[in-house]
Every structure is written in C-alpha cells, then in structure tokens.
C-alpha cells in the first residue's frame, strides 16, 4: 500500500524536515543546558512528595482550578524574588507562568508585532528572538553594543533617523542583565537613559532576564528595567538557567492592561502544573543557597574555559569578560568565517555556535563564536578547546601552533 503524498498536503506554514535526534558529541558547547551534577535531585524529590501530598488532588482540574496565570504558589515566589532581588513592586496578578521563556517570546511577539513592523534588537542577541521576529515579517534592526550593553548615543541617533523616515519601532528587545551572548550587565545610568529614550519615542521595552540569576560572587546587577518604569516595560524571566531547562518554566511580568491581552494568547490549557508546584515548593526554601552554589560552580567552569582559550589561541582570540551566565563570546581574527569551521569541527566531535547566528547582521560577526561552558566538566572543556584550536589551525592557519603551550 502506498502512502499518502503528504508533500501535496503540507500548509504554507510547514517548515523543512529535520534529521533524527542524535546523541551529544564529545565536545558539546552549544545550547542553554546546565551542569547535570547541579540539579538538586533529592531536594526536588522531597519537594514533589510534600506538595503532592498536600495539593495533588488539584491535578484533576485544568490549571489546578486556580486560573490561567499559573500556580499561585509559584507566582508568589516569583513576586517575592522580583521584589527582593530585582527592585520591583509586583503582586501575583502581575505575573503569568509560561512554558519556558520561549512561549513568553512568542506571546509577546504575537501581541505587538505585525508584518512590516520594525523591532530593535541588540546587534548580538538571542538567536531564537531574532528569528521569531523575522519569521513574523518584521524588520529587525541592530543596536550597537559595548562592554556596558546598548550604546545610548548610538541608539538615540538610530531612533531619530527612523523617526525621520516615519518609522516608529514596535519595541526594543534587550537582555540588560547577563546579555546573551556577551554576558554584559547594563549599568543603571544607561538603564535610565534607555527608558527616557523609549518614552520620548513611544517605543515599548521588552526586557529578557533569563540569565539574571547567574551572577558571580561580588557582582551586583542594577534594578530591572521593569522596576524603573513598569508602564514602559514587559519583563520576561525563566527557571531554565537557575534550576533545570527541561522543566520548561518561565514567567512574564506586566501591568494588567498588557497581561489581560496576553492571557488569550496562551492557548495550551496551562503550563505543566506539577512542575510549577515542585519548583515553588523547592525554591521557596532553597533559592538563595542553590543559586550561590550553582554560580560558584559555573564561575569555576568559566575560568577553566578562559584559561584554555588563552593557552590554545593566545592573542588570536579576543574574549568578552562575562559577569555571569553560561556563555563565552569570542572574536577570532578578521577574515576567519566561523561558519566555515562548523563542518570540520563537527567531524572532530565539536559543536559550537557560529557568530552570525547570534547577530542581527553577519557582516559584523563572521569571526565571532559562542561557547557554552555550563554542561561539560573541566577536563572536557580543556580537551574540547584544544581540539577546536587544532581544527581552526588546520582550516585557517590560526592560531599559530608554535605560539601555544605544548600539550
């Protein structure tokens, strides 16, 4: 019996097929994964047992019979965290639990973006956000960055130029606290200046703080943009980096005028309730202790990766200095196109993120790459960076091998 010719049935929205899932290669330096050893398994087991005994019967009802914004216990924890750590003044009615920050990105984009709109995104930014906006038919313009985030003077000129053309951007998408991929933190004076510009040009700000919990000891972040002007900002957060990506839990913080319009866009009958209940139970008692330990582990891994890159690449690699997070953003010499290293690196068991995939324009990022240091152990980081340097040398002649420490 022959199969139906689905090729004639797919909708115009259907995407190209993908390959079957394959196991991770030896040196897997991509994705937002975290250290498997740092998932607090026993603590989560205890939290699950406790909350199930107390409230498990509510799982019989969609949204636990408690409304579409999410489990109140988790929303209360988010509110307490945002108020205590990020300088906000919010209650649980200002918070919606979503299925990972990805769902939040989708919902906010659907609320605000029409085909032909302009969206401003940091020149290096989250690949999935850039792709989402472009797939919706938006024009994505990059905002200049330096070691302190968005360059305000450049943005002011950019907004003025757009206004002269009759264009008002729909929103500014920014990751001000542990930016992805550069891991910078925008200082308070720039945050205030950014809000002032947004108000002047009537442009909303979409603040993504998915990495804001991952700060090195002694590093402090200024108050969130939302805390400085709730009427100008929509805030997005996540538990993927602070606890576990596979739990798929994120949250949106917004004033009710926005929240009431976002709720109809959440068409999934509710984010997984058991996950919400367990995370609320665990984090309400263990958040600070867990984060302090996790950030110490991640910082040590970063040090190992930085040392490995310095040893293997020498002066051929320029690194942004992360203040937290799980990524290292690297620039190789001009003339090297990191996209051309993807295939030979993969043959050597190395997967990394090429710069152009994480930039609004490939023209200013062809020599860049992003390495995730969170999941591999120290030895894997060292061996993987050495293997990648060898691939780079074989393909480009850089780094010059005689300049490296002998292994």
Uncertain spans: 403-407
Relative strand content: 5-15%
- As for the CATH topology of the largest domain, it is Aspartate Aminotransferase, domain 2
Distance between the termini: 60 Å
Describe this structure in words.
The protein is α/β, with parallel strands linked by helices. The protein has two domains: 18-39 and 289-403, Aspartate Aminotransferase, domain 1 (Alpha-Beta Complex), CATH 3.90.1150.10; 41-286, Type I PLP-dependent aspartate aminotransferase-like (Major domain) (Aspartate Aminotransferase, domain 2, 3-Layer(aba) Sandwich). Helix content is 38%, strand content 14%. It has eleven helices and 15 strands. It has helices at residues 41-55, 72-85, 100-112, 127-135, 152-164, 188-201, 225-228, 256-262, 273-313, 342-347, 378-396, and strands at residues 27-28, 95-98, 118-122, 139-143, 145-146, 149-150, 171-174, 204-208, 233-238, 250-253, 318-319, 327-331, 350-351, 353-354, 368-372. The protein is globular.
């Amino acid at each position: 019996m022959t199969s139906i010719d689905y090729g004639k049935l797919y909708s115009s929205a259907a995407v190209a097929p993908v390959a079957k899932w394959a196991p991770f290669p030896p040196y897997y330096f991509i994705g937002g994964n975290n250290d498997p050893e740092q998932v607090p398994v026993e603590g989560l087991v205890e939290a699950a047992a406790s909350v199930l005994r107390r409230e498990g019967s509510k799982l019989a009802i969609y949204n636990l019979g408690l409304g579409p914004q999410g489990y109140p216990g988790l929303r209360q924890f988010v509110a307490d965290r945002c108020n205590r750590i990020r300088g906000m003044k919010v209650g649980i009615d200002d918070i919606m639990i979503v299925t990972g920050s990805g769902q939040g990105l989708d919902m906010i984009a659907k609320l605000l973006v029409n085909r032909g709109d302009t969206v401003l995104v940091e020149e290096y930014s989250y690949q999935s956000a850039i792709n989402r906006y472009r797939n919706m038919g938006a024009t994505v313009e990059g905002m200049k960055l330096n070691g302190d985030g968005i360059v305000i003077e450049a943005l002011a000129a950019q907004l003025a130029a757009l206004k002269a053309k009759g264009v008002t951007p729909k929103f500014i998408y920014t990751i001000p606290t542990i930016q992805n991929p550069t891991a910078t933190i925008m200082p308070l004076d720039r945050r205030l200046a950014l809000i002032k510009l947004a108000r002047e040009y009537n442009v909303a700000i979409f603040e993504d703080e998915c990495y804001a919990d991952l700060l090195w000891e002694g590093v402090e972040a200024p108050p969130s943009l939302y805390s400085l002007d709730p009427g100008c900002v929509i805030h997005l957060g996540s538990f993927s980096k602070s606890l576990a990506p596979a739990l798929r839990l994120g949250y949106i913080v917004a004033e009710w005028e926005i929240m009431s319009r976002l709720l109809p866009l959440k068409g999934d009958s509710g984010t997984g309730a058991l996950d919400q209940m367990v995370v609320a139970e665990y984090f309400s008692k263990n958040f600070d202790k867990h984060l302090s330990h996790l950030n110490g582990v991640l910082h040590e891994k970063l040090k190992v990766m930085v040392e490995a890159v310095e040893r293997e690449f020498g002066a051929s690699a320029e690194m942004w200095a992360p203040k937290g997070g799980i990524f290292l953003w690297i620039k190789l010499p001009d003339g090297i196109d990191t996209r051309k290293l993807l295939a030979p690196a993969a043959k050597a068991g190395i997967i990394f993120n090429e710069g152009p995939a994480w930039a609004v324009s490939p023209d200013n990022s062809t020599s860049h790459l992003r390495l995730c240091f969170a999941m591999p152990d120290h030895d894997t980081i060292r061996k993987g960076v050495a293997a990648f340097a060898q691939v780079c040398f074989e393909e480009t002649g850089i780094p010059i091998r005689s300049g490296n420490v002998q292994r």
